[in-house]
Amino acid sequence: MTERDVTTSTEPSERSRFSVKHLTAAGPAAKKVAGARRNPSVVGYEENAPHWLRVVAAWSWRTLVVVAAVALVFWATSRILLVFISVFLAFVFTAVLRPLVNLLARIMPRGLATTISLVVALLAVAGVFTYVGVSVAGQWSTLGDRFNDGIATILTFLEDSPLHLTVTNDDVQQWLETGQQWLEDNSAAVASQALSSAGSVALVFTALALATFCTVFFLTRGTDMWHWFLNQLPLRVRESWHEGGEIAWYTFSGYTRGTFIVAAADGVLAAIILVLVGVPLAAPLAVLVFIGAFIPLIGAPVAMAIAMVVALAANGVVDALVVGLGIALIGQFEGHVLTPLVMGKQVSLHPVAVALSVTAGTLVAGILGAVIAVPLVAVAWAVFSRLRHTDPPTDFDGEPEPEVEPTSEVTEEPRTV
Q1: Where are the domains of the chain?
Q2: 116-142 residues labelled b (16+ CB within 10 A) or e (exposed)
Q3: Which segment, 79-83, 214-218, 274-278, 316-320, is predicted with the most confidence on average?
C-alpha cells in the first residue's frame, strides 16, 4: 500500500471525527435533528463566532425573556388593578389583625375571633374619623379669624423682610377674581373631573369591600388555602415554595405591623406637639402624619410641611418653626430608635435601595407605587436571600498573606575519589 493510499484511507475517519465534534455535548434529541451533523448551528454550536460573543448572546436573549416576562406581569396587573389593590389591602389587613385573631382563637372559635377583630378594627377607624370631624366642627367658628390674623402676620413679615415683598388687599381681590374667572371658563372640565372623582370614590369602596371579603377568608382559612396551593405544585418544588412563602409572609407581615406601629406612634407624638403649641386642627394633622408614615421618605416631610403651613397661618413664624423642629425630632426618633426596635431584622433594606424603590414605584404607579414598592422589594429580596446559595464572603480589606519565598535546594557536588 502506497503512502497516498494510507492518506486517502485516513481522511474519511479524520473528517468524520471533526465533523461530529459539535455533537459531543448535545443531547439525544439534538443529534437526531435533520442537518445537525453538517450544520453545527442547529445544536447551538458555532465555530466561527468567538466565545465571548456566544456568552453575550446567551445572556442577552435570557435578559430579554426576563424583561418581557416582567413587562407582561405589569401589563396584566394594570388590566386588573382593582383586584390587585384589593388583594394587597387584604394582605395588609390580615397582617395587622392576625395577632389579635390568634390571641382570641385560644378561647373561642376562629370564625368568631375573626368577626370580633374586624368589628374592633372598624370601630377604631370610625372612632378616629369621628373625633377628627368633631374637633374640626368645634374649631370651625374661630378658624376663620385665626387664619386671617395669621395671613396678615405673614404679609407684614414679608413686607418688613429684606426682600420687601408687598401684597395688598387689591392683589388678593385680583387673585380671587382670576380664580373665579378660571372656574367659569373651565366649568365643563371641572364637572367632568367631579364625575370622575365620584367614580373613583365608588371604586375605592368596591376595593375596600373586596379586600374585607378576602381578609375574612385569609384570617380563618389562610393556612389551609396555602397548603392547598402547595399541593397543586410538583413534588420536587413544594419544599422551595413552602420555604419561600414562609419567609415572604414573615417579611411582609413584619413590615406591615412595624409600619403601622411606627405610624401610630408618629401620629400620637405629632398630636401632642401640635396641642402643646396650640395649633388648630391638631387631630386632622396628626391623622395626616399617620397616613404619611406609610409612604417612605416622602410621606413624613410632606405632612410636616402641611403642619408648618397651618401653624404659620394660624400662630405665626415662631410656632411654625417649633412645629417643624418637633416633627423633625419625631422623624429622628422614628428612624434611629423606633423602627429598629419594632421591625428588627424582619426588614433589612439599605437606604439607597429604599430611595430607588420609592422613586421607581412613584414613576411607574404614582402614590400607589410609592406605597407598595418597599414591601414588594423587601419580600423579593428576603426570598432571594433565603433560596440562593452563596459562596463565603471575601475580606477585601484584610492584609494580604505574606508570600513565601521558594527555598533553593542545595545540591552537593559529587566527590571525586
Answers
A1: 246-388
A2: ebbeebeeeeeeeeeebeebeeebeee
A3: 214-218
